[in-house]
């Protein structure tokens, strides 16, 4: 019997198979970081006297609390300014590449990685952000994780996960004029429910999906998290 793309990626990254219901241990190819969910993770490393295991597989950007105008001026929001300065300090201390505000490579965390060519098919990608599923558009297994898991990945380049079920969604035919990728995913969520994807990897298939641009596929995978799947 054949295996799904998600199953192939899982097998390729399996470090240790869990026993007696314990999670599997998977190797993580790339972790994306930003100013909101990384401070406590860096502090955890600092307190434990640890260093990132593979700094070349970590990259950070400033994107959640950045101003959209007057970026050359001090951030007027004190909390946001503190988060940004903390990220800059942490990345410098631990040697993590940072794309700060004003840098040519800086951007929204789930857009800048594909633009830079960091997101590739068959990779495992994590980030402390729920919409990490966006990278699934490129054939990667990508999921959002919590801050304690961000610390764990920095320290070990691995993550403990229980295997997901696979949900295949086929979208066939031609999209009518004016119907977009957002309409597709909203219709899917309306059908399966806001918790319909829980515990699953969603794989999108069919003629309509194959004809979508990469931007449109990113939209579908980005919004898939509203149905609470893991990767998409």
From TrEMBL:
Its EC number is 4.2.1.33. Keywords: 4Fe-4S, Amino-acid biosynthesis, Branched-chain amino acid biosynthesis, Iron, Iron-sulfur, Isomerase, Leucine biosynthesis, Lyase, Metal-binding. It catalyses: (2R,3S)-3-isopropylmalate = (2S)-2-isopropylmalate. Residues 7-227 form the Aconitase/3-isopropylmalate dehydratase large subunit alpha/beta/alpha domain. Its cofactor is [4Fe-4S] cluster. GO terms for molecular function: 3-isopropylmalate dehydratase activity; 4 iron, 4 sulfur cluster binding; isomerase activity; metal ion binding. It is an enzyme of class 4 (lyase). This is 3-isopropylmalate dehydratase. Gene3D superfamilies: Aconitase, domain 3. It comes from Bifidobacterium dentium JCVIHMP022. One of its GO terms (biological process) is L-leucine biosynthetic process. Catalyzes the isomerization between 2-isopropylmalate and 3-isopropylmalate, via the formation of 2-isopropylmaleate.
